[in-house]
Amino acid sequence: MVLSGLNSLLTFNQYVLNAYYGQDMALLKALEELHRLSREDFQRIPELAINPLGDRIINAFFPEGEDQVNFRGFMRTLAHFRPIEDNEKSKDVNGPEPLNSRSNKLHFAFRLYDLDKDDKISRDELLQVLRMMVGVNISDEQLGSIADRTIQEADQDGDSAISFTEFVKVLEKVDVEQKMSIRFLH
């Protein structure tokens, strides 16, 4: 059922792209409203169902309080995972930052940890995400130790939490562009 739903969405994408590139915004809007995905549609995708952060990833596709996402919202979230091509790295610095930029990828990842959306990752939030990731394979004491050490290493302003700036600093040597990229078409 999910495959047929995704297949119809992909077929539908051809029409949407034609409408978009043809500047037929009325047609694009009409097509978008015909196809919506629910949380249940995402939960039927096996890779998300088995992913410990699957629910957090699924939630990222939905605006606050919404249970469905249209094509534009789906593609907007998915755009974060598009690889950055070499020719994109030297784009106009005055233009809007692409959704797949390093900064936007880091914001996306940060929001997976910032459960209460207060712009910082607390020890409790870090523990919740770690529990999601490792399940019962590690004791609460070990998880607490990992969370404490992570916050101690990342926290530069002494507030016992990780801000976005501190999150970025910790990941400055990580190839986020590669690790948060999915090649959709070959």
From TrEMBL:
GO molecular function, one term: calcium ion binding
Pfam family, one: EF-hand_7
PROSITE patterns xrefs: EF_HAND_1, EF_HAND_2
Highest taxon of the lineage: Eukaryota
InterPro entries: Calcineurin_B_homologous (IPR051875), EF-hand-dom_pair (IPR011992), EF_Hand_1_Ca_BS (IPR018247), EF_hand_dom (IPR002048)
Domain EF-hand, first and last residues per copy: 101-136, 142-177
Keywords: Calcium, Cell membrane, Cytoplasm, Lipoprotein, Membrane, Metal-binding, Myristate, Nucleus, Phosphoprotein, Protein transport, Repeat, Transport
UniProt-listed GO biological process terms: protein transport
Subcellular location: Cell membrane; Cytoplasm; Nucleus
Recorded GO CC terms: cytoplasm; nucleus; plasma membrane
Family of this protein: Belongs to the calcineurin regulatory subunit family. CHP subfamily.
Protein name: Calcineurin like EF-hand protein 1
Name of the encoding gene: CHP1
